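Narrative of activities, Objective 1.

The group set out to show that a structural description can be obtained from nothing but a protein's sequence at a throughput compatible with the screening campaign. Below is one input-output pair from the validation batch, recorded exactly as produced.
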Amino acid sequence: MLGGDVDPDKILIQFKAALKALDKAHFLLLDETYRKALAIKISETVEACPGNCGNEDHIEFIRKQFPDLELDTLTAQMREIDVLRKISKKITLITVDRHFSF
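Output recorded for this entry:
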């Protein structure tokens, strides 16, 4: 590879370009994966909070922010929506339990 008339600087430039392209592909894949996971969590949270869980405004705020979120904020929003989903499910279970208690 380094034998003959090949300029070592050109090889280095090609490797750097390949590495940069791979890094960008990795970043885009991670972004897409996180967005899909957050979209699923938002959907589940909206279903768990049908309008009476006390977090409707916050859930709607995250849902509206979703398209504009950067990758570094996606992880924080994923954790936050997960907490809201768990709270909403607990409220739903308590409400259902009260309705069917004898």
